[in-house]
Structure to design on (84 residues):
């Protein structure tokens, strides 16, 4: 499921754009961002195939793990995200 979603630009200095690349129903997916310390920094159920996250509200500069949760609430895909 490598191409399930795209997250760009990466690294980012502010806004992170998410694009869902699956034909499944959008509302079946959620986005979760985990900090390098294991803390959940962000969670959002998807309501459209395209949206953006303000990484300044998520946390300070550093490494994050963006997880796409699928219809069964399991992790469908993961991307490493660097906030500058």
């Amino acid at each position: 499921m490598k191409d399930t979603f795209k997250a760009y630009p990466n690294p980012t200095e502010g806004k992170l754009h998410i694009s869902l690349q699956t034909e499944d129903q959008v509302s079946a997916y959620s986005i979760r961002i985990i900090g390098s310390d294991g803390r959940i920094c962000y969670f959002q159920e998807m309501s459209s195939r395209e949206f953006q996250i303000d990484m300044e509200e998520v946390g300070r500069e550093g490494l994050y793990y963006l997880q796409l949760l699928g219809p069964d609430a399991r992790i469908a895909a993961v991307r490493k995200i660097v906030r500058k």
Summary: The chain has one helix and seven strands. Residues 55-58 form the longest helix (4 residues). Residues 30 and 45 are 4 Å apart (CA to CA).
